[in-house]
Amino acid sequence: MELAKRLAAAAEYVPAGSVAADIGTDHAYLPIYLVEAGICRRVIATELRPGPFRSALRKVDEHKLNHKVDLRLGDGLKAINPSESDVIVLAGMGGNTIREILSASPEVLSTVKMLILQPMADPGDLRSWLAANGWRIYDERLVEENGKIYVIIAAVPGCEEVKDSVLLELGPRLAEKKDPLFGRYLEIIKSQYERALAGMRSSNSAAAREKALETENKLAGIRRIAGCQ
After folding, report:
1. Are residues 210 and 161 in the same domain?
2. Closest of 12, 80, 16 to residue 45, by C-alpha
3. CA-CA to 24 of 20 to 30 Å: which in 44, 109, 141, 209?
4. Does residue 207 sit in the same domain as residue 152?
5. 0.90 cut: is pTM over it?
6. What CA–CA distance (Å, rounded) separates 192 from 55?
7. What confidence tens digit (pLDDT) does each residue in 101-122 have?
8. 205 and 127 in a common domain
9. Per residue in 49-61, pLDDT tens?
């Protein structure tokens, strides 16, 4: 099975021989790929909604992988038990949604060896949560697909040494290894902040002025990091 580029990039982080859990599996493309490629001996795949769950079930049936892809209808990590999975994959949802899912099941999270995360938005909030909750950002990469740049984050239990909030927002490992797409990625984020700042400056409220000052400081940090690339 051929995966979308962002899912293929996430799959590259899954350790060979591991048992992975794909949370919010949609059509179960990633679990099917991981098993057929021989990366995982077994994959747990969960889906919250009955419609996508049935779609995933049909796809797994088509590939005759019911004995290796364990499909479950349930909410986030609540559908799996502690120590059932070595690796948790959460892809294709917002960073704050990912954070909420992880926060809701600490007993499961405490037995996991790696998180592979592909947030569609708010990756900075997600990184900050990881750093504050005993996870080290092991690696990151950017992938371009259909004109959009996606972030993939791999985290392992440990202490994240980077404390700079701007660098955590932008991606400390992306900056360190000078990801080929990082310059363009910074420009996108900078443009978003500049548009937001223009809107804040049009307001006379004290809250808007305070938010504008915070945004100006972030922009200064982004420009500083961009200048080092």
Report:
1. no
2. 80
3. 141
4. no
5. yes
6. 36
7. 999 999 999 999 999 999 999 9
8. no
9. 999 999 999 999 9
